[in-house]
């Protein structure tokens, strides 16, 4: 056996180091964490059943730990190297998101743990976007941006060396893992100094604020971190009294008895002082804080229904405020089943199956197993499988609320997963196939115990 440090442990240490760095860099993020902690505590006090459930599933201790962060990079090489860096921490590219339709010139994936044990240990993921320079219409500006990007290296020599070592050895020992976390962290650090003069920054920013954010700095600063909240509606409502300016609406599905997919909200990005290469002083807004609340993962059929209802709810144009937005959503989503049994029987959501210890099966074992009968007789238990990914419409809303006014029209481009995967140097994992597989494995294991 090797003495390599588990990838789950490296990921946990990295997420912790990133959280500390970000709290130091963006003090308002610390205020958000304090608010989330207070709301989580009050929710648990008011709901002993929920508290017991979380305690039984070992969730309590790491409730306030971040669930995701996000970065944006400029070149295929940067993306491909990030894939190798994240792999050292057991994080792999899952899903493809095209944001160009929403006026954001990027496409993205999420680097995240994929198997049950790793997700349980620490689900930290990084939403990673690649700038699509080809969408910049002005040829001279496109060329200039490409040159600036070609001149930078967002990885330290130490990080490059340790990634190669991990690949060669098949892991890192304790000393190497500790150095790796410190070196990898450098890529995500904020730089107060831009690499370009103010004029270049302005030209890129006028094309799209996001282009300036990606191109003008030494690295892809982490632009937000996102802890988990047990009551996103309460945090949204209480942000102003904590001195935090929230985005207008909570993204995603409405509040449900049986939560589905992902609900998110953030505070607006802060204006931060920048020194430009020509010694000019200016400002840049990029960094913010976000919170998330996750529900059950939907099957393809469930997801299609979600997308259809979400589109229907947007027909009337944007709501005046979050309260009316949520009311509008709830009305439309009345058509979506809201109890676990129906979601499961209608094939709308994914579940984990577990054999009840000591149970024996009276129904159907030997022949074709009758899952419904086994559940009804108490031999088999199905629990909702948490959604681990992102939602493109929600992501676009998060991007836009943090890019300020001057929202760009839709880009005349199509989603291009093949181009993204070529840049990445690998195929992205299909998230639906992954949930399906985890469900099948859990069911097969449970049934084999009942035989
Ligand atoms: C990423 C925005 C998307 C989310 O939670 O949907 C995102 C970004 O602003 O770079 O993080
Ligand atoms: Ni996010």
What does this protein look like?
With 451 residues, the protein is an alpha+beta fold. The protein has one domain: 2,3-Dihydroxybiphenyl 1,2-Dioxygenase, domain 1, CATH 3.10.180.80. Helix content is 45%, strand content 14%. The protein has helices spanning 7-25, 27-46, 48-56, 76-87, 116-121, 139-150, 157-169, 174-186, 198-207, 209-215, 232-238, 300-313, 322-332, 340-345, 371-376, 392-401, 417-424, 431-450; strands spanning 66-73, 92-98, 106-112, 125-131, 224-227, 262-267, 271-275, 281-285, 289-294, 351-355, 380-384. The strands form 4 sheets. Strands 2-3-4-1-5 form a 5-stranded mixed beta sheet. It has a two-stranded antiparallel sheet with strand order 6-9. A two-stranded antiparallel sheet has the order 7-8. Strand 2 (92-98) and strand 3 form a beta hairpin. The longest helix is centred in the N-terminal third of the chain and has 20 residues, at 27-46. It starts with 6 loop residues before the first helix and ends with a helix. Nickel (II) ion binds at residues 68, 70, 127, 224, 226, 290, 398. Nickel (II) ion is lined by residues 68, 70, 127, 224, 226, 290, 398. Belongs to the 2-oxoadipate dioxygenase/decarboxylase family. Its EC number is 1.13.11.93. This is 2-oxoadipate dioxygenase/decarboxylase. InterPro entries: HGLS (IPR009770), YdcJ_bac-like (IPR047869).
